[in-house]
């Protein structure tokens, strides 16, 4: 099983798009199915599950933008890191390009999650 939280910030519209993917046995679970699973596990309704995941995503995104870590016990740690500007070569044209600095979101799985992925129980 795996979980992927992807938060993109669209500079053009100044909005944040958050997509959550969960996969079990190479089958992707889209956002709607994920929210239904959260609602079922937490014994809450789907709108509340949606608000909870949006709040979690917002906290992670805001913390990452400030280069802070968010640790979720038993799951892992999200961290915002800065990628410095660099000069790269365009392989098609051979021209050198300056890539601007960027913000990346990194995820470090906890030992419990790693163990569960290898077949152990959480």
Could you characterize the architecture of this molecule?
With 122 residues, this protein is α+β, with helices and mostly antiparallel strands. Helices cover 32% and strands 41% of the residues. It has 3 helices and 8 strands; from the N terminus they run βββααβββββα. A 3-stranded antiparallel beta sheet has the order 1-2-3. Strand 6 and strand 7 form a beta hairpin. The longest helix has 20 residues. The protein is elongated.
Summarize the structure.
By secondary structure, the protein is of the alpha+beta class. Helices cover 32% and strands 41% of the residues.
Keywords:
single chain, 122 residues, alpha+beta, three-stranded antiparallel beta sheet, 3 helices, 41% strand, elongated
């Amino acid at each position: 099983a795996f979980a992927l939280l992807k938060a993109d910030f669209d500079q053009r519209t100044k909005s944040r798009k958050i997509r959550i993917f969960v996969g079990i046995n190479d089958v992707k679970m889209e956002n709607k199915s994920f929210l239904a699973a959260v609602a079922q596990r937490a014994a809450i309704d789907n709108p509340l599950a949606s608000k909870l995941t949006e709040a979690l995503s917002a906290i992670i995104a805001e913390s990452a933008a400030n280069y802070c870590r968010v640790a979720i016990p038993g799951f892992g740690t999200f961290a915002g890191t800065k990628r410095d500007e660099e000069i790269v070569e365009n392989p098609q044209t051979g021209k050198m390009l300056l890539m601007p600095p960027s913000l990346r979101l990194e995820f470090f799985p906890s030992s419990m999650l790693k163990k569960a992925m290898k077949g152990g129980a959480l």
